Structures are given as C-alpha cells and as structure tokens.
Amino acid sequence: MFATGVTIVTMRAKSGQLIGLTANSFNSVSLEPPLVLWSLARKAASLVAMCETSHYAINVLTAEQQALAEQFARRDIDRWAGVDYTIGASGAPLLTNVAATFECFNRSRYEEGDHVIFVGQVEHCTHHSETSPLLYHGGRFFTEHLLGDAAVADEKHTSR
Ligand SMILES: Cc1cc2nc3c(=O)[nH]c(=O)nc-3n(C[C@H](O)[C@H](O)[C@H](O)COP(=O)(O)O)c2cc1C
Question: Which residues contact 151 (CB under 8 A, 6 or more apart)?
Fold first, then answer.
C-alpha cells in the first residue's frame, strides 16, 4: 500500500560486465553529506558485484520507462539489449532519458534479514524536472496526477 518511484541500479563489475536491476527500495537518508539507500535481496545474482563495486548509479525512471523497469527485473534475457546509456564519471553506466541520476560511492552496507541495505554517497546527480515519474503501487505501475488546488491551478495554466 506504500507507493514508490522506480529506479534501475547500474554498475560495471570488475570483469567489465554491465550490471543493472530494477529497485523500488530507494530512499533518501542525509543531505550533509548527501546519502541515499536501497536494499538488495541476498539471493540476487548481482549481490557479489554490488558488494565489490566502488561506485554505482541509481537511475530514476519516467512514466515512459515501464518496459525498461520490467526488462531489468527479468532473469532470462540480456537486460542491456537495445538500451541507451553513457558512462558516468565513476565508470557506472547511466541510462539516457531518465528523470534523475545519482552517481554514488558505495559507502556502507548492512545485512538485515533476507536483504542487504546499501548506503551510497552521492558524488554527482542530474535531473529533468519536466518529466512525469514512474510510480509503483500494489504491484502495478502508475504515473502522477495533481490533487486539490494545485490541480485546479495547473488546469487553468495549461488551458490558457
Ligand atoms: C518495480 C520493481 C521493484 C523492485 N525492487 C527491488 C528492490 O528494491 N530490491 C531487490 O532486491 N529486488 C527488487 N526487484 C526485483 C529485482 O529487480 C529482480 O529480482 C531482479 O531479477 C534482480 O536481479 P539480479 O538477480 O540480476 O540481481 C524489483 C522488481 C520490480 C519489478
């Protein structure tokens, strides 16, 4: 019942292999220093690479990227086939046309239950404020709509 955004966490493994997986456990932790967290299932194939990497990127998806979210949660495919990306300052792949990107130093991790919580220190970030977010709620994908006075004001603004 808790609505979240949707991200794809990306990194380049020691072997050079590109790693990426869909995660909605992303959240903010601290402004000074800038810290974020997300959690990864212990059984995930990317756990070893995630523990070894010094840096990773968190790519916040837009409403147009549901297919990408599904692609990076599947096991039986090449997740990177047909995916546009650039390489960030830290060496992690950055997906193009996302709502926001956080390039993180892999600062600390906490093993809790069947997940591992990763805390990342944000070294670079970018965002595109005109995009609509991809949201996840009750196992389904959504995007946002404004409520109350803000919706009325927005309607007046766009119909002008
Ligand atoms: C919307 C959505 C959110 C997800 N969030 C997480 C998450 O926060 N942590 C996690 O471990 N798996 C999450 N998953 C599942 C992983 O994306 C999926 O298990 C993936 O296959 C793991 O990749 P790996 O086994 O290659 O590491 C999520 C899947 C979806 C569709």
Answer: 145
Q: Which structure tokens are listed for 157? A: 């603004």
Question: Distance between CA atoms of 102 and 126, rounded to whole angstroms?
Answer: 7
Full-model pTM: 0.95
* Domain span holding position 50: 4-159
Using a 6 Å cutoff on CB, does residue 44 contact ligand 1?
Answer: yes
- Burial class of residue 45 in the structure, from the number of CB atoms within 10 Å of its CB (0-12 exposed, 13-18 middle, 19+ buried): exposed
Q: Is 25 in the pocket of ligand 1 (CB under 6 A)?
A: yes
Residue of the CA atom closest to atom 6 of ligand 1: 23
Q: Compute the distance from residue 150 Cα to the ligand 1 centre, in Å.
A: 34
Residue 113, sorted as left (phi over 0), alpha (psi -120 to 50) or beta, turns out to be: left
What digits encode the pLDDT tens for the residues 58-72?
999 999 999 999 999
In angstroms, what is the span from residue 156 Cα to ligand 1's centroid?
Answer: 40
Helix, strand, coil percentages, rounded to 5, for the chain: 15, 45, 40
For the domain that residue 13 is a member of, what is the CATH number?
2.30.110.10
Please state the domain count of the chain.
1
Q: Which atom of ligand 1 sits closest to the CA of residue 141?
A: 1
